[in-house]
Specification:
By secondary structure, the protein is an alpha/beta fold. The protein contains 11 helices and 13 strands. The protein has helices at residues 31-40, 53-63, 76-87, 100-108, 128-132, 156-169, 226-235, 243-252, 256-279, 300-306, 332-345; strands at 18-19, 70-73, 91-96, 112-117, 140-144, 172-176, 201-206, 219-222, 283-285, 291-295, 309-310, 312-313, 324-328.
Length: 347
């Protein structure tokens, strides 16, 4: 079994390195969000609003989703675990490789997990065989688009086919869209317009990546089935979103200039990194989001650490072995430093 406790962004064990292992916005938390978080400390002597009312109203306007169909949590992982507790599925279908927290949440409720292994020879791209693997005894399906760690992106037609097969089989679909914001045209890939059509669909989002708010822990989700949301609230801990996180989330939704400017820069730098990695003859897969997934020599992470740079070793993902890595897209000067380290290692 893959080691579930290895993750990117471990600045506590590696405090003095340039971190490419966590794929958050490299331009940092917006100043308006920092100020809102600091100001909210004065209110932290009180319990948080258990309904997250102001934040959900702001999200309803921003995402064009009805207020009552929105739920907030202590990061996306909190919602994933809450869903597992609420649904108590017996059998689940997961892609491999994909986000490890799906597996952790399902195992926590004793769910039997069936993996659909993506093939290197097919570029780790999901195809019709994944849809065919959804069967009558499948209780829940998790799908991440773009996928983590591969960055493989599937079109909306494919995701709709998954949702339709889930409906036919009575399976619940958890769709992780945490990285759609980094796409060139995110609106073309979201299932938001189809929430009412598919009540057995839950979409996961987070403030973590786009606003560089990983340490504040704030995620949210959409579902048109009020019973599912009620079940989630019944099993999740109360006051799971702090006063500070709620205030920061409200402020973040006002940072439209920051989002437009920084995401534009990230997309530009991603293209630059892809070109440069191809020149160095790395085998690249997918990589449509703010991170790049590639195959390289074994021991590359350790060699990079020796030179003050941390990259994500993906060998602990189910379905992957040694030699697979993920790097975040960072600022221009930081990306150039990474490339210099690769050249010094003489890969």
């Amino acid at each position: 079994m893959a080691n579930l406790h290895i993750h990117g962004g471990d600045v506590y064990r590696y405090p003095h390195v340039l971190d490419f292992s966590a794929n958050c916005n490299p331009y940092g938390m917006p100043e308006g969000v920092k100020k809102a978080a600091k100001d909210a400390v004065e209110k932290a002597e009180c319990y948080p609003d258990v309904e997250c009312s102001r934040l959900r109203k702001a999200l309803a306007l921003e995402e064009e989703i009805p207020y009552e169909q929105i739920i907030c949590g202590n990061g996306a992982a909190d919602l994933i675990f809450g869903l597992a507790l609420a649904l108590k599925p017996k059998k689940a279908l997961l892609l491999a490789p994909s986000f490890a927290e799906y597996q952790q949440a399902l195992q926590a409720v004793g769910c039997e997990i069936r993996y659909h292994y993506l093939q290197k020879e097919e570029g780790f791209i999901p195809n019709q065989s994944f849809i065919d693997a959804i069967e009558k005894d499948t209780d829940v399906v998790f799908f991440c688009n773009p996928n983590n760690p591969t960055g493989v992106l599937k079109n909306l037609e494919y995701v709709q086919s998954i949702a339709e097969k889930c409906r036919q089989c009575g399976a619940f679909l958890v769709l992780d869209e945490c990285f759609t914001d980094f796409l060139e045209d995110p609106k073309s890939y979201t299932m938001k317009p189809f929430l009412k059509e598919y009540p057995g669909l839950f979409q996961v989002r987070a403030f973590t990546k786009k606003y560089a708010m990983a340490g504040l822990r704030l995620g949210y989700g959409f579902c048109s089935d009020s019973k599912i949301l009620a079940q989630m609230r019944a099993v999740m801990q109360p006051w799971n979103v702090s006063v500070i996180a709620q205030a920061a989330g409200e402020a973040a939704l006002k940072e439209r200039t920051y989002v437009e400017e920084t995401l534009g820069k990230i997309r530009k730098e991603r293209k630059f990194l892809l070109r440069e990695l191809e020149k160095r003859e790395f085998q690249i897969y997918g990589s449509e989001a703010n991170y790049i997934f590639f195959q390289g020599p074994e021991g590359l992470r350790e060699k990079c650490l020796e030179k003050g740079v941390s990259i994500r070793d993906c060998s602990n993902y189910e379905g992957l072995g040694n030699g697979y890595y993920r790097i975040a897209v960072r600022r221009e000067e930081e990306n150039e430093r990474l490339l210099k380290v690769f050249d010094e290692i003489e890969i």
